[in-house]
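Comment thread on ticket #2218

A.B. wrote:
> Attaching the input chain for the structure job we discussed in standup.
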Amino acid sequence: MQADVLNIEGKKTGRTVELPEEIFGIEPNDHVIYLAVKQYLAAQRQGTHKVKTRLEVHGSSKKLHRQKGTGGSRKGNLRNPLYKGGGTIFGPKPRDYDFKLNRKVKDLAKMSALAHKAKGNAIVVVEDIKLDAPKTKSFTDALKKLNVGNKKVLFVLPEENDNLYLSMRNLPKVEGTLLADINTYDIVNAEVLVLSETAAKVFGTDDFAAGEEVNA
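C.D. wrote:
> Ran it. Output below, let me know if you need it in another format.
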């Protein structure tokens, strides 16, 4: 699959990159995408929710009245869950919501998400942007010329670039990530995937496959 490389003016440079069919041309598997996104969101949960049981709430532990002979129902103490201020029955406890997914499932989910973007013509390849200093306005102007200024963008870089990161971090619709850290949720959550030229070329090399194993 050939993709044109655009410059920061939004015009074709005359160069193309090959996006491998075995990644971008597969038939997407929506179920594994669902599993990968579910796992990602589950891992973000802190799981610190906590309620107090009848053993943990404040209150007298004395039995309210004798067991028999009052004409009323049997009662324990004020910590009873049936009373206001009493403990909570079967309430939430701190827990870890994360669950395991096999590496091959996560890899297939990532490739399926990329394939969806390719089928929807939602992938833009731009030449490597070099900024002498952080400049949000310059980066915003470049996105507008690429016709993605009003869309949720996932900007993929091959390596860390402080000037680019500082230029995009205040833009609410732009998320920057390294190619090694790309995940299914970020791909699905973005409307457009913008790849730098160097990052796009990595997809066709063994380095990307190796990175998939490491980051699975």
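A.B. wrote:
> Thanks. Noting for the ticket: The chain has a mean pLDDT of 90.
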